[in-house]
């Protein structure tokens, strides 16, 4: 801060930015405080989103708070499994557990709360016992939507964790199985999560009698966005001659570095619809940088392909730009080919 005041130079790094923001707020140096917030926004990821959420509330920075929630909602499972989640205060924990739009399985939320409770016991110098974990969680435990878990997750996880009382465990089992359901203190409505959006880059599709051949070759396209989004998967074409099963290896790269990939199967019904294939976790995409979306398909080679491709597509408040990729070895480009849709959260 003194360097900025005397030399008009701002030199921020991850290790000192929060302390610098605190000092800038305390001594009313608004330009430096804004620079700190901008630095935090650009370095925001699932690994640090929960910690930065806690700090943004402390520093009363609503824009940073909103950015943190965007990351936590879209990449909830990554955020909940991060080391930083265990470092948050109890008030931030409760706000996350209340969140209606968390895009996570409830068993992941439950396991994250237990990890936080273990860390809180250590902070309070309490023995790591089940009773103490329940004690430090307090009423926050009822914000975990245990009745909405898959029955297997509950029976093999939460029910055997020891954190629930025998009466609570019994009542939740009855909630799953009985016609007359008991009253529960736990929230019993599933979280709404996020609704995925789809960016469709072709104006039409077709098929031809001499087939679209795959043979292990890569279909690829480059894209950029003007706002931060989270790519959850691709919408892909299927067979044009009846139902068929496909194997798809999907991948997202930035400057040659793999950010996300998955290998999965999907069924097509013979229609020209697109069929979703998902990454394990949504991938954070920063604005004004080109990323490469790729797929290697294996299946019926008589399939649909896109035509009349667009170089720019407006999806809600997000603008996508497309350009050809040198990774594409199977004919896909801006004007036509595969990878008709990018499925994303924004």
Automatic annotation (TrEMBL):
Keywords linked to the UniProt accession: Cytoplasm, Neurogenesis, Ubl conjugation pathway
Principal subcellular localisation of the protein: cytoplasm
Keyword flag Transmembrane helix: no
Keyword Cytoplasm: yes
A GO cellular component annotation in the UniProt record: cytosol
Entry function: Adapter protein for the cul3 E3 ubiquitin-protein ligase complex. Promotes the export of zbtb16/plzf from the nucleus to the cytoplasm and targets zbtb16/plzf for ubiquitination and degradation. Up-regulates neurog1 expression and antagonizes zbtb16/plzf, to promote neurogenesis.
Entry protein name: BACK domain-containing protein
Organism: Albula goreensis
């Amino acid at each position: 801060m003194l360097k900025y005041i005397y030399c008009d130079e701002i030199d921020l790094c991850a290790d000192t930015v929060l302390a610098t923001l605190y000092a800038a707020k305390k001594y009313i140096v608004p330009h430096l405080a804004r620079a700190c917030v901008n630095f935090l926004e650009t370095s925001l990821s699932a690994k640090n989103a929960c910690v930065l959420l806690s700090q943004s509330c402390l520093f009363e920075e609503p824009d940073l708070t909103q950015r943190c929630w965007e990351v936590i909602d879209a990449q909830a499972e990554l955020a909940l499994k991060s080391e930083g989640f265990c470092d948050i205060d109890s008030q931030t924990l409760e706000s996350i557990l209340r969140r209606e739009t968390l895009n996570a399985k409830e068993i992941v939320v439950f396991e994250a709360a237990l990890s936080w409770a273990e860390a809180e016991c250590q902070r309070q110098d309490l023995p790591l016992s089940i009773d103490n974990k329940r004690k430090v969680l307090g009423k926050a435990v009822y914000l975990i939507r245990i009745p909405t878990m898959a029955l297997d997750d509950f029976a093999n996880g939460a029910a055997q964790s020891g954190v629930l009382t025998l009466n609570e465990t019994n009542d939740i089992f009855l909630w799953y199985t009985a016609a007359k359901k008991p009253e529960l203190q736990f929230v019993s409505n599933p979280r709404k999560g996020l609704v995925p959006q789809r960016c469709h880059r072709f104006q039409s599709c077709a098929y031809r009698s001499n087939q679209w051949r795959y043979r292990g070759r890569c279909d690829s396209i480059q894209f950029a966005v003007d706002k931060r989004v989270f790519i959850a998967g691709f919408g892909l074409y299927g067979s044009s001659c009846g139902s068929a099963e496909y194997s798809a290896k999907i991948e997202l790269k930035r400057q040659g570095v793999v950010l996300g990939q998955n290998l999965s199967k999907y069924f097509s019904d013979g229609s020209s619809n697109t069929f979703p294939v998902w990454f394990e976790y949504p991938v954070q995409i920063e604005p004004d940088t080109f990323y490469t979306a790729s797929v290697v398909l294996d299946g019926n080679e008589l399939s649909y392909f896109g035509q009349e491709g667009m170089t720019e597509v407006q999806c809600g408040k997000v603008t996508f730009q497309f350009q050809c990729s040198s990774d594409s070895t199977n004919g896909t480009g801006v004007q036509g080919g595969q990878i008709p849709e990018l499925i994303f959260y924004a």
